[in-house]
Each structure stands twice: as C-alpha cells, then as structure tokens.
C-alpha cells in the first residue's frame, strides 16, 4: 500500500516512546485511572506500601524492603499506563498526518442556488449542514458534501493517500466529496452534509487518536470479569489478617500488597486498552476506518461474507479464453478473423481477443489504412471493422445470426451451449456475412481466491457471491471460485432479504458496497464496509469505510477483528494462569516464619522470603512491558479452525502462562541473589 | 493403597456414570413434560393449589415463586422446631429448639444444606423429623432441580421470554423422580436392616444386666432421600456411620450411588434437551474427573497411614483407620465422604476430623470449588454452567470470536451476574471463617488448636456457604455466632447465588441461538473438559489457597514433622 496513513510506524519509534513515557505519569491521576479497576487497586496499594516505607524511615525500622516493594508496585502501574500511552501515541502519530489535510480554508458560500457565481467567502468552520458552496479548481473542499451540480476531478490523497485524481460528479454513485480533498480541475456546487467537527476527517482523527474511544461490549464484559477477580483476591488477602492472627502471624502491609498485586490480573488489566487501541490502529494501517470499536469486534464474529462478484471474485472484465470454429474453418483462420474484428475495439474484452490471438496463434494483424471501426450499439449488439469492402463482425450470437440470416451448424451450437453452461459469454464471429465460429469470453476468477475462500471456510465463514448475472453463469463462476452460495440477478432488495434471512438463522453478516442502493443492506449487515469512492448515503450506512475502495479487504477486516479478540483472550488467559506459580513463590515466603515446615512448598527454592516476594512482584511488573509489543502487534491469527486454534493458543498462553512465571521468578531470584539483594 | 481399594472406587464410578445416562434421559423426559403416568394425581395437585400448569414464567416470576415458597417453608419449619414439644409424635417430650438453633436448622433444611447444629437424638422429635425435615429434603432438592431445568431450557432455543413453570417443575420432579426412587431405596435399606418405625426408642438389656435406651424411628425413608436429594441430614448424630442408617457395606454402596446419580445425570439430561448429547457428556466428565482425583487422593492420603503411628511402630499396615468404621474400611469410607462433599450431601460414614490433614483437605477443597463435582441436585448443574460460561468467556476469545456458549453470546450482563455469584460464596467463606477466628466465641467452638483448629472453622463456613452440610466434626456449632452466622451463610449461599443464575438464564433465553460453524468455540471433547477443570480450579478455588495453606496444608507438614494439635 502506498498511502500516507499506511506508513509503517515502528514499534519503538523514539518520539512516540519518549512522549508515552511522559504521558504514563500523567495517567497516574487516580480519577482517570479508576476506569481500570485492576490498575487502580494496584495504585492504591502502592500508595499504602509507600506510606509504610516512609513511616519506617522515621521509626527506624528496616525500611529497604517496603521501599523496594513500593517502587516495583509503582513501576507496575507505570508500565500499565505506559502501554496505553504508547498505543495512543501511535494513533496520534497517524492523526497528525491527517490533521495536515484539515486546513481551515475559506469557503465560497452560495447564497442563491440559482446564481452560483455570487458567493460570500466564509471560514470553513462556519459552514452548516445544508449550506451550498462553490468549489473551483485549486480549492480545498471545506467540508463533507454531496455534489448537486458539476463534474470535476478531485485529488483525494489527503484521505486515501492515493495521488491520482478521481472524477466526481452530480448524481449517481460518485457524488460524495470529503472535506480536505482538493479540486484539481473544473468546478462543483456542493451541499454541505456535516456540521463542523462532525466531518469524516474529524471523526477519523478522533477515532485514530483514541479520543472518542469508548469501551466495546466485549471489553466492558472483560473489565467486569477483571474487576470481579480483583475483588475476590482482595477478599482472599484481607481475610488473611484474620487467619493470620489466629495463627500468630502478623502480615506487614508490603507483604499483603505484594500478594494482592501478584494475584489480581495486572497483566491483562494493564494491557487491555492498549490492545483495543492497537486493533483500531491495525485497521487504519489497512486504510480502513471503523466508526466504532464495536464494528471491529463484530468483524471477528462474522459468519457470512457477501462479496460482489465483479472486482472481488473476478477481475471484472471478461477475457477471451478460446476460439471455436464452425465445420470447415481452420482454427487459425478463425483466430485471425477474431483479431481483425477486434482491431478497433478498445474495450478490455476486445484487447483480450487480440492478445489471445497473438499469444496462442502468433497472429497480430496490422490495422489496414482505410479501416473503419463499427462500434458496439445496443441495437445491433455487434462491433467490427470494415475495410476494402470486407466486413468483419463479432457480437451476441442471436443478433449476429438474425442480422445475417445465418443458420448455425451442430459444432457451433454445441460450442455456444457449452460456453453458456460454463458461465462464459459466447461471441459469434462473421467475415463478409459468413459464420466462422465463436469466441469464448470468460469471467476470470482471481488467482488464489479459491484458497482464500477455503481458508475462510476453515474459520467457519461462509462466502456468498452477489452478481447481476443469470443463474447459470453465476453458478458456474461460483463453482470455479469455490464460494458457498451465490445470489444471481441480484437486486438491492435481494441483498437485503438475503442478509435478513442469514441473520434470522443467528449468523452475523459482513458486506461491502458503494452505491446509494446498497445503503439499506449496508445498514442491515452487522459489518458494512462502504467504499470511500461510494456515495454519502453508503458511507453513512456502513460502519466502516475503506479508503482504498478495495472490496477484497473484507477478508482482512475479518482477520483483524479476530486478531483483536484473540489477543485479548490470550493475554487474559496468560494473566490468570500466572497466579498458580505466584502462589508457590509468595505463600511459603509469607507463612514460613510461622510454620517453618511450609518451606517444603517453596518448590522453586527461592533464596529468602524477601527475595521470593520481590521476585514475584518484579516478574509481575516486567511481564507487562515484555508483552507490550505483543499487545500492539496482536497475536497472529491462523485460519486453521476454532478447535485447532484453541488447542494452539491454550497451549501457548494457558500452559505457557502456568510455566513461564516459574522460570521468570526463579531467574529474577537468582539475579537478586547474585547481587546479594535480600539474600 | 491396594488394588481392591482402587477397584472399589472404579466400581462406584462405573455404577454411577453407567446409570447417569438412563437417569439423565428420564429426567429430560420429566423436564420436557413427557412423563405423565401419574397425570391425574399431578393435575389434582394443580387444581387443589389453583395453579395453571400451562402458564409459563419469566425468570423473575420463577425466582419470586421459588423464594416465596422457600420463605413459607422456612417459617413453617421454624415454627415446628420451636413448638415441637406441643406437637404430636414426641414421646420423649423433647423441648422446642432455641430461637437461634431453630433459625439455623430451618435455614439449613430450606437450603438443602442439612448442617446439623443440633443433636438429633436429644433435640428433635420424630414428628419434627418426619414432617419438618424430611418434607424439606424433598422440597429443597426438587427446587434445586427445578432451577437446573429452567437453566437448561434457556439454552434450547432463542428468543424465549420464559423458563417454564416452577410449580409444575417442582411437582413433577417430586412425583416422578424423588418419591419413586426414595421409596425403592428405602425398601432396600429396610431389607438390609435399617429401621422404619414410629416407635421412638427401644430398650435393650445388656450382658451386665443393665439396660440401654436405643433411639429408633422412621430411619430408612429419611436415609434414602437424605442421599438421593443430596441433603445429608442424618436421623442420628453419627449420620451414615450409625448402623441403623447404614447397616452394611451394600447399603454403603447404595447410599454412595444415590448420592451421585442425579448430579451426574443432570448434564446428560441437558445434552438430551439440547439435542446435542456431547455437550452434556463434556460437563459430566469434567465433574467426574475432579471427583475421581478427589477420591483417589483422599484414599491415598488415608491408606498411607499416619507417619507418627508408623514412627512409633504402632500402626498396622492398613493405613489411618482412626474415625473409620471397620465394617467399611478405608476406600469405602473415603469414597463415601468425598462423594458426599463433591455433591452437597455432607453425609459421612467416617469422621473427616480424624482423617489425615490432606485427606481432610480434599473434601474441603471440593466444597470450596463451588460444589460442582457433581454438586447438589440441581445446584451442581447450574454452578458448573456458571463455570462453563466463565471458561468460554476467558478462553473463547482465543478463537477470534466474542464468546458464546451453546449458541448464546456471553456478554457483560452474564459475566457480571456470574462473578456476583462467585463473589458471594467467597465473601461468606473467607470473611466468615476469618472473622470467626478473631472472636472469642469462634475460638471457643474449636476442639483443636493450631492449623487443625483453623481447618475446622474454615470447613464449617465452606460447608454452610456451599450448602453442603458436612461437618468436619470437632466444632461446637450451637453458639450464637455460628448459629446465626452459618445460618445466614447457608441462605445467602443458596439464594443469593441462585437468583443471579436465574437472571443469567432469563437473559440467555431471550438471546437468539446462534448456529455453530467451524469457527465456533468447541465446548465438547478433552480440550474443553481440561479447560473447564482448569477454570473451576483457578476461578473457583484459588482464592481459598492462602487460608487452606494455613489450615490443612500446614497441618500436614507439621504432622510430618511430628507436631500435632
């Protein structure tokens, strides 16, 4: 991708990291931190432990241990806020490049719709929905709008990063314009469709910066789980005071704080919002803007993809794939006639016929000097070339036969029928009124698309091809591309009905579309990706906009959605599984003074109780930093089916989550021991 | 450990799991209204009570009806216990219970806990046993199974507003499931020698020409429902260690079977109602694996014997027989007790207090896990559903979809309610035990010092909160602190847990049922079973580990070092 927004931002960009380091301190504000219950509790106990450390300074008790524990608890909080700050920083860096496009231009406000040349210069931020403005060559589009008059080429690179200008005109599916783009030729009269601050660009910047980030439904649910776990472990730790007093054990605040922070899910608590921001960021790197995080989550859940045949599944242009002569005509002669008939034909189909003749038969006739091109018309449904009294024609089979009063032979009929059954289009070819044979024009399925659909099927996602073709043609292409279902002769209403039917079975549907008549289906679909080149109506109806207007991206969008959810699940599992080993580090350490026999539970053979507790706390803090890159990059999604994926991830993050801290805590303890710290 | 011992455990599991399948399909038929052989009787009850059996209840109606019924029965039982002196069938003229003991006992039997702070022989009349306690043994069991049935229905289809009719469920479960099996089992117990009579005492003449008064009564019937409804309240203080309750090794096996069979049958019934039997089997196997580990673990701990005895050279090779009946031996005793704590029965045929500390830790831990192995009748099922929802929620994301269980999306509301349930259990167990140990009254109830005493208190609160009713023995439970405290723990552990579950069921029932695909999180097979077990242990048990370490674990290590309490 060669777009401005898509520029790769290094995971450890220096500017972002240094800014994030500062931000992570600002985020310590307990009022804002309270949104994250796990880290908030960590901060509270960090304060308490610090207080104990300070108190000990004055009372002359040994103070090193509480101070060091407090330090690491603070670091735990800082690492968590840092992770969020880095994720936000990456978004902000992208937003900067977009903000440059939002220059505060002067708009030409038209007061009387009939007199477009009489306008009042008005600052863009003063424009309101419904105002009419004139935008002329060289002007920056002041806001989002709908063209009501004129045709112009527009450079949309500020939004899409694509520098080639596109044509925008009143009426039809190309009438939407976006604020920040530039008219490079001609003029347009535009009706403003967004109030200041609500334009597409504004929304995009807000989304990318994370300012408008609301917690997504699954994130909210996960937060509840984490808050619940925090409460449960808080109970376990607080009630230890009771059990301890019975057992003649007094636990100090730093020890209880260390136990609590190690048990509550700080890892996922610290990384959760970074994961969410990074998910949106990944989507933007693909040049897709989701209007909400909810849409990204829904993308992971999609069960069915509605894909337009043309442009997504096939290249969109029919291409010649074979010449089939009638009896008595050599194949080469037919190929030559086909090439001649297409000499003046500049359509992709015509060019493909010439290319096939050249590539397969080494025939490349030159255009005769007096040649006259006969263009295709809806009446004749033929095109061809006249020169030196000769007439070469190619066209729809029935029209050609009727025009020249020809009767087809068996070979011709058979070829035509076979081509039709295969979903291709037959073109009859004549020279001077004599039927020579038939050209097969084939809808070429994109290479590799079949494998992608197979991969989607493995993920449990059905693909549905939508096409205006008749059933026979549609069925043939569907079979070739390997889609699960197709809608032939599709009208917008058919699409809508199909989506409703699939949803009624309890499935989620994603689709993409660009036209105004796609809007109802886009709105009905659970994930509706509108093309940036599409109409304003389509863009409003969908919950994502694809800036590249590439319908195949629907597949990547689904993968990004899944990746986001997998990352969240993997780190949650990892975080919770960590608790087992932390128990083995801390419990013997805090009870061993009372019951020396419990040293037997110290299976990691950690040197001293202090060193054991400190090692667990250090591990707990460092693991957040270690996992930041994973949270930002996301756990890789593999289309191997849910059962295999679960087995794999459960092994890595579940079993790994049980084992890793045993190794980590032991290693930290050995390092502490080497420096004779608390040992 | 001996081969015979392991074979005994295998035999119990084979009998129970083998019967769980027919029992499950029979229960599914009851829940779906396909069992009607007592139709006229059933309809007679509805007419008598003015209940419209066709009326479907929303989860709120279902919960309110259940709560009201429980409240009425609670008050009735309280009245019976207070007034038993004036009521019939009290030839020994046993006086009414004190208010706090009556509260505790009424709470205990309303909640299917059957914690016995009273001494049956001297503090309750036969009349109160039969018309007070035994009635509750049926009703509380049927209520638990009804809730399980309501939860099952929530998963069967989508877009449902109702969960069934509580009165109908309660009536059918009592009529078609609890009564017939109890009658058959009681008959078998009578054949084996258990008494079933309205005579309250026998006088026996001893060899040295003295005379002995032996308590007796309608034991067999109570014994049968005590096990089958996972109640646990024995006719006698000695519970199933008493030869009248449990005459021989055969009845011991029968009672053990009765204890477990509904619990393991319910997930099977669930699979049938879902028309996806593998789902039910997965839940059943997760329950069975944890219980099997518990049975083998406790057996190993007891068969290993007491190191102090071994060191002193007094121990025979047959392990720790203290507190166990020689009629049963170690494996039959440990399997019985572990089964009774894995279910919420709480019956004992040997005394957990006399087990090795580790042998006692396992029943304690099984209770703390939330009673899901297979748990109390009904309650074990709906609790494991909570864990299944949490498992799917935590790990389900790892397949790249927002979590769903059996086609129902698990969202914030369900997670909130599930965590609320887990939290309530945690509060009562940990705060209750921790606080009691800081009070003079609490310390006064303990029979032993040190970690063993801590275990006694922790066991009592775990048993009450999880509605088990098993007593570690040793604790003097009839004190104001424990009567009121444990009584509240039982009520909250039952109803404050059950209402969120019904709310979850109501919420899930209304959601559309999503169809499955290759991308759906698989909730059958070894992988899910392993995950579910892991989540039960981590989310259900980890919070109790610090306390358990100071209790039975410390006890075990101290014992190994030669220190006892």
Which helices and strands occur, and which strands form pairs?
The complex is a heterodimer of chains A (679) and B (565).
Chain A: H1 14-26, H2 30-33, H3 37-59, H4 64-99, E1 106-110, E2 119-123, E3 132-136, E4 145-155, H5 157-160, E5 166-169, E6 176-177, E7 182-192, H6 200-209, H7 217-246, H8 253-263, H9 266-285, E8 288-290, H10 293-301, E9 304-308, H11 309-313, E10 314-325, H12 331-341, H13 348-361, E11 372-374, E12 382-387, E13 390-396, H14 397-404, H15 410-421, E14 425-431, E15 434-445, H16 449-458, E16 462-466, H17 471-481, E17 485-487, H18 492-504, E18 509-513, H19 519-524, E19 527-531, H20 536-541, E20 544-546, H21 553-577, H22 579-591, H23 609-633, H24 642-674
Parallel strand pairs in A: 9-16, 9-18, 16-17, 18-19, 19-20
Antiparallel strand pairs in A: 1-2, 1-3, 3-7, 4-5, 4-6, 4-7, 8-20, 10-15, 11-12, 12-13, 13-14, 14-15
Helix pairs in contact in A: 1-4, 3-4, 3-8, 4-6, 4-8, 4-9, 4-23, 7-8, 8-22, 8-23, 9-21, 9-23, 10-21, 12-13, 21-24, 22-23, 22-24, 23-24
Chain B: H1 3-31, H2 39-49, H3 59-83, H4 99-110, H5 120-123, H6 126-156, H7 166-192, E1 201-205, E2 211-215, H8 219-228, H9 249-274, H10 277-303, H11 307-312, H12 329-342, H13 357-368, H14 379-396, E3 404-405, E4 408-409, H15 412-436, H16 440-445, H17 450-465, H18 480-510, H19 525-541, H20 545-560
Antiparallel strand pairs in B: 1-2, 3-4
Helix pairs in contact in B: 1-9, 1-10, 1-12, 3-4, 3-6, 3-18, 4-18, 6-7, 6-9, 6-18, 7-8, 7-9, 8-9, 9-10, 9-12, 10-12, 10-13, 10-19, 12-13, 13-17, 13-20, 14-19, 15-17, 15-18, 17-18, 17-20
């Amino acid at each position: 991708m060669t777009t401005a927004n898509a520029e790769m931002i290094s995971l450890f960009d220096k500017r972002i990291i240094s800014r994030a380091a500062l931000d992570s301190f600002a985020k310590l504000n307990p009022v804002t931190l309270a949104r994250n219950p796990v880290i908030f509790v960590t901060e509270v106990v960090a304060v308490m432990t610090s207080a104990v450390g300070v108190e000990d300074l004055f009372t002359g008790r040994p103070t090193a241990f509480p101070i060091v524990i407090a330090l690491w608890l603070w670091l735990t909080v800082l690492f968590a806020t840092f992770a969020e700050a880095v994720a936000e920083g990456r978004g902000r860096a992208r937003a900067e490049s977009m903000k440059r496009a939002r220059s505060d231009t002067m708009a030409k406000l038209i007061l009387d719709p009939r007199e477009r040349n009489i306008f009042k210069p008005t600052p863009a931020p003063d424009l309101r929905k419904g105002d009419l403005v004139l935008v002329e060559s060289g002007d920056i589009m002041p806001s989002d709008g709908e063209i009501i008059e004129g045709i112009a080429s527009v450079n949309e690179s500020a939004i899409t990063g694509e520098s080639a200008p596109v044509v925008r005109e009143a009426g039809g599916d190309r009438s939407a314009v976006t604020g920040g783009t530039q008219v490079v030729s001609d003029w347009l009269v535009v009706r403003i469709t967004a109030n200041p601050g609500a334009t597409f660009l504004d929304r995009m910047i807000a989304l990318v910066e994370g300012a408008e980030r609301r917690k997504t439904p699954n994130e909210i649910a996960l937060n509840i789980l984490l808050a619940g776990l925090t409460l449960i472990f808080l109970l376990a730790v607080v009630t230890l005071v009771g059990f301890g007093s019975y057992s003649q054990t007094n636990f100090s605040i730093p020890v209880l704080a260390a136990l609590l922070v190690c048990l509550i899910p700080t890892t996922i608590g610290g990384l959760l919002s970074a994961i969410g921001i990074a998910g949106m960021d990944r989507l933007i790197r693909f040049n897709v803007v989701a209007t909400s995080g909810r849409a990204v989550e829904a993308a992971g859940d999609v069960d069915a993809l509605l894909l337009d045949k043309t442009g997504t599944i096939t290249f969109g242009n029919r291409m010649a794939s074979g010449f089939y002569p009638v009896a008595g005509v050599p194949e080469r002669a037919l190929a030559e006639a086909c090439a001649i008939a297409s000499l003046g034909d500049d359509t992709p189909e015509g060019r493909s016929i010439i290319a096939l003749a050249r590539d397969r038969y080494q025939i490349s006739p030159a255009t005769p000097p007096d040649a006259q091109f006969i263009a295709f018309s809806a009446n004749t449904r033929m095109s061809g070339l006249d020169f030196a009294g000769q007439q070469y024609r190619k066209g729809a089979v029935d029209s050609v036969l009727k025009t020249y009063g020809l009767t087809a032979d068996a070979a011709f009929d058979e070829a035509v029928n076979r081509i039709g059954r295969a979903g291709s289009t037959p073109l009859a070819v004549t020279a001077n009124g004599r039927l020579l044979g038939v050209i097969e024009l084939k809808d070429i399925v994109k290479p590799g698309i079949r494998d992608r659909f197979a991969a989607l099927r493995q993920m449990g996602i059905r693909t549905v091809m939508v096409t205006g073709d008749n059933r026979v043609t549609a069925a043939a292409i569907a079979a070739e591309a390997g889609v699960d279902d197709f809608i032939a002769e599709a009208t917008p209403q058919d699409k809508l009905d199909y989506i409703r039917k699939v949803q009624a079975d309890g499935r989620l549907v994603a689709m993409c579309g660009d036209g105004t008549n796609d809007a109802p289906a886009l709105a009905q679909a659970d994930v509706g990706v509108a093309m940036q080149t599409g109409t304003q109506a389509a863009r409003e109806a969908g919950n994502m906009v694809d800036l590249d207007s590439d319908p195949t991206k629907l597949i990547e969008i689904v993968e990004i959605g899944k990746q986001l959810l997998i990352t969240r699940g993997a780190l949650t599992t990892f975080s919770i599984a960590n608790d087992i080993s932390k128990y083995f580090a801390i419990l013997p350490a805090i009870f061993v003074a009372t019951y020396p026999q419990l040293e037997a539970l110290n299976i990691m053979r950690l040197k001293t109780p202090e060193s054991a507790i400190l090692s667990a706390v250090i591990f707990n803090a460092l693991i957040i930093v270690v996992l930041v890159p994973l949270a930002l990059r996301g756990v890789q999604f593999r289309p191997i089916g849910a059962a295999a994926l679960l087995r794999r991830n459960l092994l890595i993050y579940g079993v790994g989550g049980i084992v890793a801290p045993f190794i980590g805590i032991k290693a930290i303890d050995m390092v502490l021991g080497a420096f004779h710290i608390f040992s | 450990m001996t081969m015979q011992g392991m074979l005994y455990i295998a035999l119990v599991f084979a009998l129970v799991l083998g019967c769980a399948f027919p029992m499950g399909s029979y229960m599914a038929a009851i829940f779906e209204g396909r069992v009607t052989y007592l139709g006229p009787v059933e309809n007679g009850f509805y007419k008598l009570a003015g209940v419209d059996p066709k009326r479907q209840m929303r989860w709120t109606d279902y919960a309110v009806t259940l709560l009201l019924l429980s409240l009425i029965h609670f008050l009735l039982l309280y009245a019976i216990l207070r007034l038993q002196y004036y009521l019939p069938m009290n030839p020994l003229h046993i006086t009414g219970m004190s208010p706090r003991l009556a509260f505790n006992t009424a709470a205990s039997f309303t909640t299917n806990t059957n914690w016995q702070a009273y001494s049956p022989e001297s503090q309750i009349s036969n009349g109160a046993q039969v018309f007070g306690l035994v009635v509750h043994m049926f009703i509380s069991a049927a209520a638990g199974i009804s809730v399980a049935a309501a939860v099952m229905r929530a998963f069967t289809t989508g877009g449902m507003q109702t969960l069934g009719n509580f009165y109908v469920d309660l009536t059918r479960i009592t009529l078609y499931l609890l009564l017939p099996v109890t009658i058959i089992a009681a008959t078998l117990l009578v054949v084996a020698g258990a008494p079933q009579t309205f005579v309250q005492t026998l006088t026996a003449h001893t060899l040295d020409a003295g005379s002995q008064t032996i308590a007796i009564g309608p034991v067999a019937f109570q014994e049968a429902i005590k096990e089958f409804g996972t109640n646990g309240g024995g006719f006698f203080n000695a519970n199933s260690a008493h030869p009248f309750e449990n005459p021989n090794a055969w009845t011991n096996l029968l009672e053990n079977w009765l204890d477990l069979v509904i619990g393991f049958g319910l997930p099977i019934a669930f699979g049938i109602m879902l028309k996806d039997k593998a789902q039910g089997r997965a839940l059943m196997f997760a329950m069975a694996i944890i219980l099997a580990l518990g049975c083998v673990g406790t057996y190993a701990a007891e068969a290993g014997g007491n190191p102090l005895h071994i060191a002193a050279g007094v121990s025979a090779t047959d392990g720790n027989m203290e507190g166990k009946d020689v009629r049963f031996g170690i494996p039959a005793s440990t399997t019985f007790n572990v089964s009774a704590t894995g279910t919420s029965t709480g019956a004992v045929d040997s005394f957990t207090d006399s087990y090795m500390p580790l042998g006692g830790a396992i029943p304690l831990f099984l209770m703390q896990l939330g009673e899901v192995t297979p748990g109390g009748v009904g309650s074990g099922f709906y609790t494991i559903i909570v864990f299944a929802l949490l498992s799917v929620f935590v790990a389900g994301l790892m397949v790249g979809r927002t979590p769903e269980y059996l086609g129902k999306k698990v969202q914030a509301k369900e997670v909130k309610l599930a965590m609320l349930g887990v939290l309530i259990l945690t509060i009562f167990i940990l705060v209750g035990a921790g606080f009691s140990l800081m009070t003079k009254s609490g310390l006064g109830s303990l029979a032993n010092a040190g970690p063993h005493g801590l275990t006694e208190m922790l066991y009592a609160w775990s048993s009450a909160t999880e509605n088990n009713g098993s007593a570690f023995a040793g604790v003097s439970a009839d004190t104001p602190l424990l009567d009121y405290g444990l009584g509240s723990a039982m009520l909250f552990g039952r109803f404050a847990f059950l209402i969120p579950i019904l709310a979850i069921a109501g919420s899930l029932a209304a959601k559309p049922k999503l169809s499955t695909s290759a991308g759906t999180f698989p909730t059958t097979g070894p992988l899910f079973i392993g995950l579910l077990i892991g989540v039960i242990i981590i989310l259900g048990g980890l919070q109790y580990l610090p306390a358990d370490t100071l209790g039975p674990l410390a006890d075990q290590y101290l014992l190994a070092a030669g220190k006892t309490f």
